[in-house]
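Q: Predict the bound structure with tryptophan.
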Amino acid sequence: MIDGKKVLFSGMQATGNLTLGNYLGALKNWVTLSDEYECFYSVVDMHSITIRQDPAELRKRARALLTLYIAAGLDPKKNCLYYQSHVSGHAELSWILNCFTYMGELNRMTQFKDKSAKHGDNINAGLFTYPVLMAADILLYQADVVPVGVDQMQHLELTRDVAERFNNIYGDVFTIPEAYIGKVGAKIMSLQDPSKKMSKSDENPNGSIYLMDDTDTIMRKCKKAVTDSEGVILYRSEQPGVKNLIDIYSACTGKSAEDTVREFDGKGYGEFKMAVGEAVAAILKPLQEEFARLEKDKAYVDSIIKENAEKASYYASKTLRKVQKKVGFPARI
Ligand code: TRP
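A: Predicted complex:
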């Protein structure tokens, strides 16, 4: 609890271009949570180096992501928006938690299995202990809730197990975090393969709409979206392509799936795809304009980065000092 509010933690990696899926599924909903929770949203750059990165590119993307957090409407006075690497407590707590996490537990992580299969030439220890760093992120702020996608659920379960293990030995040190269940964001699928999640690492650029795509590109991608030969606009799993477009349209306009089906009753796919493209462009345009404005206001963004890193460090060191004492590190004189 901070000032009577529950604490919420989440983070995103600054790798790849963020997609409409990231926005509608996560970022857009984060904005609505800051009244109810004390929110920490980190740009998790330390996680990114588990895969080899170009340094200049990582720096640029990290800055862009933090700027995007603000552009998306996260008020930096109410939400703590910061770089993970600016708060040394993440690394320090991560080391301690490493000593309370079993090899067997990490071996079971499906993301590790996937990533090590994909990056066979660089299966580093950081990739293996990635979930421990994630546990440190969450536990450092005594987070009560963590909004995560299904792909990160296993890591959150591990976080809870490690926290409980620690608490069983040393008393109530960590808050046991829960997955945020509330109004979750829409799960947006690839426009080219609606059985796959829209992903920033998709090889087919037509599958994803990127947040910085211009209107023409958005329209083109929507027009090319895979549908089916049914020829009717209905919200059902037999028509995954159409269903996905309805989800996108609903998320962008705030209309329900049923209303959308009614609105396009008897209309063709071509017309519907145009409407989807327009709805997407309408929601991304103000975001892009605000992003461009903030990018120019370097001093303002710098000040946010500095202030919020200090705020995060303050809360992080409170937990860290407690943990260090519990495990037996000598007091500072
Ligand atoms: N691993 C998460 C992802 O790739 C990002 C992340 C890092 C995170 N630390 C976190 C998410 C803590 C929630 C809480 O999506």
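A: The pocket of tryptophan is lined by residues 9-11, 13, 44, 47, 134, 137-138, 146, 148, 152 (CB under 6 Å).
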